[in-house]
Amino acid sequence: MDDIIAHYDVTPETIRNWIKTRNFPAMKMGGRWRFDWDKIYMWEESCSSQDDAKRASGQYKDYLTADRALSSSNRSLRPAIATDALTLINGDCLHALKTMETGSADLVLTDPPYNLGLFMQKRSTNLKQMRENYFGAAGWDNLGADEWAASMDSFFDEAARVVRRGGSMIVFMAVIKVETIIRIAQAHGFYYKTTGTWHKLNPMPRNMNLQFINSTESWVYFVNDARTGTFNNDGKALHDFYESSVTPKSERTFGKHPTQKPVELMDYFIRVLSNPGDTVLDPFMGSGSTGVSALSLGRKFVGVEIDEHYFDIATRRMGVAD
Q: 305 CB contacts (<8 Å, ≥6 apart)?
């Protein structure tokens, strides 16, 4: 097992998950997993062929490993798009953040991977059959817990430089990961303000006779290197709770994203936490809801998305596609 872990640079949990769900060649002998390299190389070849076929058909990508899902070597990256109002970058968010000026962002509004891919694959949710672009089968959310925490640590380290002092950040996050995100952000100088809830008024009613319907997502509010920042509440008490429908069909005209947020929700945070003319940054842009909202409300926008398919959707939604 140690040799296999070193070869793929993943966790033991990932390997065991591949054995259960992806026909990874292994045999248990004396209570320990044993592997045949020849069979493993054949398995890799098979997975590579499947990936190539999915890329050619334009289907949602199910990469062999998270590293392959995040590697630009597996992608035909699009040229960056820059106008007076926006900058869109197709690439890795950490690489992109390193090119940005210190203190250039007034608000970060983003929805990074929740590190639930492997967790969800082990649960009997039947989501992959219900949704063709189910995030749990994507690859990009399959990092081990330690790997994911390290990637978030690198993100907050660079974000602390790019966000101006007193600038705000909203990070959507699975509730079981909120404590980890708060701890990492605080280590880089972000002041934790509150954890809130987005309540979906019309969630997917899966397994409704077996369990509570999952109708909420968490968001975490930080201010960079200060105790308070822009807060346009117009003298009204704003609760840490927002209700809206999920993304309507009209906002999926150019294509679907498995975790797409509605523009209405983005509008709420951008109005409260930024001012006209400010720069809103989304380092995990997806299909571009943050950018659509920012531009419509008179803000500037910088978005980064590593998946070329979703990058193309975002450019079309913001009216800057070739």
A: 88, 89, 90, 284, 285, 286, 288, 311, 314
Q: How far is CA 44 from the centre of its chain?
A: 26
Burial of 69 (0-12, 13-18, 19+ CB in 10 A): buried
Domain boundaries, the chain: 2-57, 66-317
What is the C-alpha separation between 19 and 222, in angstroms, rounded?
Answer: 40
CA 32 and chain centroid, separation: 35
For residue 75, the model assigns a pLDDT of 61
**Selection from 105, 247, 82, 98 nearest residue 165 by Cα:** 105
- Average pLDDT value for residue range 221-246: 97
Q: Helix, strand, or coil here: 202? A: coil
Confidence class for position 18, pLDDT limits 50, 70, 90: confident
Exposure string of 224-250, with b = 16+ CB inside 10 Å and e = fewer, is beeeebeeeeeeeeeeeeeebebbeee
Classify domain 66-317 by CATH architecture: 3-Layer(aba) Sandwich (3.40)
pLDDT class of 123 with cuts at 50, 70, 90: low
Question: Which residues on neighbouring strands pair with residue 82, listed in sequence order?
Answer: 87
pTM: 0.73
Which residues are CB-neighbours of 145 under 8 A, at least 6 positions away? 11, 13, 115
CB atoms within 10 A of CB 183: 13
Within 10 angstroms of residue 18's Cβ, the number of other Cβ atoms is: 22
Beta strands in 74-189 (DSSP E): 81-82, 86-90, 105-110, 163-173
Amino acid at 90: N
* Inter-helix orientation angle 145-162/178-187, to 10°: 40
260 DSSP 8-state letter:
P
